[in-house]
Amino acid sequence: MTEGTILVNKKILVTGATGFIGSVLVKKLAFTSDEVWILVRKSSDLTSLSDVLHKVHLVYGDIADRSSLDSALQGIDLVYHSAGLTYMGDKKNELLYKINVEGTRNVLQASAAAGVKRVVHVSSITAVGIAFDKKPVNESVEWNFNAINLEYARTKHLSEIEVAEAVKKGLDCVIVNPAFVFGAGDINFNAGRIIKDIYNRKLPFYPLGGVCVVDVEIVADTIVTAMEIGKTGERYIIGGENVSYKQLADTISRITGAPKVRFPLPFWMAKILRALLDLNKNKNRVSKLFNLSMFRVASEFLYYDSTKASQNLNMRYEPHENSIRKAYEWYRDRDMLN
Q1: Hey, what long-range contacts does 33-39 have (CB within 8 A, 24 or more apart)?
Q2: Which DSSP symbol is given to 306?
Q3: What pLDDT digit, counting tens, does each position of 97-155 carry?
Q4: Which of 102, 119, 157, 231 has its CA 20 to 30 A from that of 274?
Q5: What is the pLDDT, as a whole number, of residue 281?
Q6: Chain segment 206-257, per-residue pLDDT in tens
């Protein structure tokens, strides 16, 4: 498949279909004329796909099991690889490598062996880099996340190296790098955890960094466009507004009606506070987001320039308030915030 070539009535496989981005992507694909297959494990929770299960086909397998992929990919034209482990800490290093690096390698090798026409690899902004001077970085920046020693970021970086190797060997691949994704349907409280915790007054302070916010619907639409017209071997940052965590917290407070988060917390002070909280029996009264690995990342500026995706993949922009409001209202309407 070359850039700009669109197959009719394609047979598509999605990995990571039960995740936040993956489930929204599957819901979009399910209402096309294409035949959509989702790779799931026997233990997978399919709740996020309950509305479209009658429109898709399930195939059992695991990206960590190459042999299961060989059978799952027979006859597949296109693969959206959105499976991965997101974990900010150092207690799951082996699993992060197994899923994010070896799992990606398995998908790529099995896709090549099965004659898949194109693979879109859903990566992460942590595979791009950090804006140390607060100036948004783009796809060409040299990876510098190793400066803060986050295994998740390292494995996402290595997974992109696997994609580059596969492209050299002739597999048609495109990489997309979604930013901090909010929106309706975040059933597992990924980015949405910060909304819930500010609403419940479990986050009395904010880190001093910033982040790039994008809506999940924009991410899913842009991923589909990347499959259709993205250039082989290229990566595309899918982002939106760059906001400080103070701005983000203020937006969440305004939309949810929660009290403002008023206290800035530098990382050096966070280390002391975390140690004190660990001695306290009531440590669960503070957000689960307050672990040192996540706070270390949140003390930097993950600001990104999404011009490339905007110009080449027709990616649209919208204010971050819109996405926060959609996520909050989705949680509120389902009584998921308490």
Answers
A1: 33/8, 33/9, 34/9, 34/10, 35/9, 35/10, 35/11, 36/12, 37/11, 37/12, 37/13, 37/72, 37/76, 38/13, 38/14, 39/13, 39/14, 39/15, 39/63, 39/69, 39/72, 39/83
A2: -
A3: 999 999 999 999 999 999 999 999 999 999 999 999 999 999 999 999 988 888 999 99
A4: 157
A5: 59
A6: 899 999 999 999 999 999 999 999 999 999 999 999 999 999 999 999 999 9
Could you tell me which residues are beta bridge partners of residue 205?
263
Residue bearing tokens 């995706």: 309
Q: What are the strands, taking DSSP E only, across the chain?
A: 11-15, 35-40, 57-60, 78-81, 118-122, 173-178, 180-182, 205-206, 210-215, 235-238, 241-244, 263-264, 301-302
Cβ neighbours of 64 (radius 10 Å): 15
One-letter amino acid at 87 equals Y
**Residues 110 and 71 sit within 8 Å (Cβ to Cβ):** no
Phi, psi torsion values for 32, nearest 5 degrees: -105, 180
- H helical segments located in 240-291: 245-256, 267-278
Query: Any idea what DSSP says for residue 195?
Result: H
CA atoms within a 13 Å half-sphere pointing along the CA-CB vector of 192: 24
- Phi then psi for residue 242, to 5 deg, are -95, 120
How far from each other are the two terminal CA atoms of the chain, in whole angstroms?
A: 48
Q: At what angle do helices 20-30 and 216-229 cross, to 10 degrees?
A: 60
Provide DSSP, 125-147: GGGT---TTSSPB-TTSPP-GGG
Among 45, 40, 46, smallest CA distance to 59 is for 40
> Can you list the domains of the chain with their CATH numbers?
11-181+214-239 (3.40.50.720)
Is the pTM here over 0.85, yes or no? yes
- Residue 67 burial (CB < 10 Å; 0-12/13-18/19+)? exposed
Q: How far is CA 90 from CA 64, 149, 183, in A?
A: 20, 9, 28
